[in-house]
Design goal:
The complex is a heterodimer of chains A (377) and B (128). Chain A folds into three domains: 141 residues, Probable tRNA modification gtpase trme, domain 1 (Gyrase A, domain 2); 90 residues, Aminomethyltransferase beta-barrel domains (Alpha-Beta Plaits), CATH 3.30.70; 77 residues, Elongation Factor Tu (Ef-tu), domain 3 (Beta Barrel). In chain A, 20% of the residues lie in helices and 33% in strands. Chain A is built from eight helices and 19 strands. In chain A, the strands form four sheets. Chain A has a six-stranded mixed beta sheet, sandwiched between helices. Chain A has a six-stranded antiparallel beta barrel with strand order 14-17-16-15-18-19. In chain A, helix 2 crosses helix 7. Chain A is globular, with a radius of gyration of 21 Å. The N and C termini of chain A lie far apart (50 Å). Chain B is an alpha+beta fold and 128 residues long. Chain B has a six-stranded antiparallel beta sheet. Chain B has a three-stranded antiparallel beta sheet with strand order 4-6-7. Chain B is globular, with a radius of gyration of 13 Å. The relative contact order of chain B is 0.27. Classes of the chains: A alpha+beta (377), B alpha+beta (128). At the A-B interface, loops of A face strand 4 and strand 6 of B.
Chain lengths: 377, 128
């Protein structure tokens, strides 16, 4: 029986309604899918800028003298590579190498880390993280984990104009915000309230993510829209966020990643450090790699004029043998072509190889391509 | 968003409009439907010569997010399709009752017109 789900609301829910956003349930949250139109918002992020409410995402703090050691053993990437004020993309796996979540890990102090996780995964991640902490950390007092998801909101300001606008924020930061490098994070202040500003995103564009207590999120949202008006930074919804990340070939948990899909199978081996010593899922992934991966995520472009591919559509080789399923697909607003990501069994498909996508009982030709599918001219 | 509902057309509950001239019916989707579907990125039309039953799924419209079926409001043979929608599906959004028409049917049972809604009936259904 399907119970009607009670959706959570971010602190910006009234603002979304006032902007006549079309709202949709996403990961347990009532979120704006679009304000004016997905294509317009998408193209605006590529040409000028878009402002996304990403307050549904989760934030965990992991601190203490044992924090780095714990995270090295709990996550796939290596936090030792992070100097203070830097972030990295990483994944959390179970013992079979299945993916619990993908996330961004920031080192905010020598012994303090901030994890930014998917909204739909907050509960599972928190359970897994705290259980891992109990089993992996010998001295319980050396690591303290805290779930700040209810207290913190977040905004993503993305696009070529983001830097000039967010760069105007001045809040006693140690480095001018406009000069921050990719993956950098620093603490600044919004009218006395400490907030984090990071040069990260999920769109393939330059831009910032701001992580702040919910109490100041509406004021920051309003300030960016006002300051960004001349530069044509507009509110952008989850629809554009999805098409932007799909064009880049970025994974979305539940589509390209799941407990049944390891980071290696998702093509994210770059973010799995087998040389750092033991970590959860390492043994299983090494064995799977040794045996040869049974499935792999690939990016593809539709060849001719065709309907957009969608998650769940079947994929076959040119001879008609079934290979797998589309995991994400859309009509790319930037390329004006159907494109997507698919998980395929059997031998690895190389860029340039032809495949077929089934759309309404008919097969349409497509070509495996390298990620990202969208590259800046 | 307010959407117009022209008086001279008939409407299916599934949001198609019909303009009936002699034994030919022009078919499209309503302004309300295009607004609900949001910006269309692809339209799949029936083949000319195909014989449709009233209520049969016969075309597909796709927005960035979803694919939706369009149903034949009357029975008949498809005698012409608006091929320009294949290159410019946005016409459905900008001019649903005009340039955004989908296909013409040679109607096999004109009496089916009486089963369609008039403008006020459709307005009541969509609550405008």
């Amino acid at each position: 029986m399907m119970m009607s789900e009670i959706l959570q609301k971010t602190i910006l829910h009234p603002q979304h309604l006032a902007l006549n956003a079309r709202m949709v349930g996403f990961g347990g949250w009532d979120m704006p899918v679009q304000y004016t139109g997905i294509r317009q918002e998408h193209l605006s992020v590529r040409s000028s800028g878009g402002l996304f409410d990403i307050s549904h995402m989760g934030e965990f703090l992991v601190e203490g003298p044992g924090a780095c050691d714990f995270l090295r053993r709990c996550l796939t990437n290596n936090p030792d590579n992070l100097s203070v004020g830097m972030g990295q993309y990483t994944l959390m796996c179970d013992h079979q190498g299945g993916t619990i979540d993908d996330l961004y890990l920031y080192r905010t102090r020598e012994d303090a880390f901030l994890m930014m996780v998917n909204a739909s995964r907050i509960m599972d991640d928190w359970q897994w993280l705290t259980a891992q902490c109990q089993s992996l950390v010998a001295e319980p007092d050396s690591v303290h984990c805290e779930n700040l998801s209810d207290q913190l909101g977040a905004l993503a300001c993305q696009g070529p104009a983001a830097r000039q606008v967010i760069g105007r924020m001045e809040g006693e930061e140690t480095q001018p915000i406009a000069h921050m490098a990719k993956n950098q994070i620093q603490l600044t202040h919004w009218q006395g309230t400490p907030i984090w500003v990071a040069v990260t995103g999920y769109t393939g564009e330059d831009g910032y993510e701001l992580i702040a207590p919910n109490s100041v999120i509406p004021a920051i949202w309003a300030w960016i829209l006002e300051q960004g008006q001349a530069a044509e930074i507009i509110p952008a919804g989850l629809g554009a966020r999805d098409t932007l990340r799909t064009e880049m070939g970025y994974p979305l948990y539940g589509h390209e990643l799941s407990p049944e899909i390891s980071p290696l199978e998702a093509g994210l081996g770059f973010f799995v450090d087998f040389n750092k010593g033991e970590f959860t899922g390492r043994q299983a992934m090494l064995e799977a790699r040794e045996r040869g991966l049974s499935k792999r995520s690939v990016a593809f472009l539709m060849d001719g004029k065709a309907a957009p591919p969608r998650a769940g559509y079947r994929v076959a080789d040119q001879a008609g043998n079934l290979l797998g399923l589309v995991t994400s697909g859309t009509m790319s607003p930037s390329l004006e072509k159907g494109l997507g990501l698919a998980i395929l069994e059997g031998e690895a498909k190389k860029p340039g190889e032809g495949i077929q996508i089934e759309i309404r009982q008919r097969w349409y030709p497509a070509t495996v391509v390298r990620k990202p599918m969208y590259r800046k001219a | 968003m307010s959407s117009s509902i022209p008086e001279h057309l008939k409407y299916a509950k599934t949001h198609e409009w019909v303009r009936h001239e002699a034994d030919v019916a022009w078919v499209g989707i309503t302004d309300h439907a295009q607004a609900e579907l949001t910006e269309l990125v692809f339209v799949e039309l029936p083949e000319v010569g195909k014989v449709l039953e009233a209520g049969q799924a016969c075309a597909v419209v796709e927005s960035v997010k979803t694919a939706s079926d369009i149903y034949a409001p009357m029975s008949g043979e498809v005698i012409e399709v608006n091929t320009s929608l294949m290159d410019d599906p946005g016409k459905v959004n900008s001019d649903a009752f005009g340039e955004g028409w989908f296909f013409k049917l040679k109607v096999s049972d004109p009496a089916q017109m009486d089963q369609l809604l008039d403008a006020s009936g459709y307005a009541a259904q969509v609550g405008s």
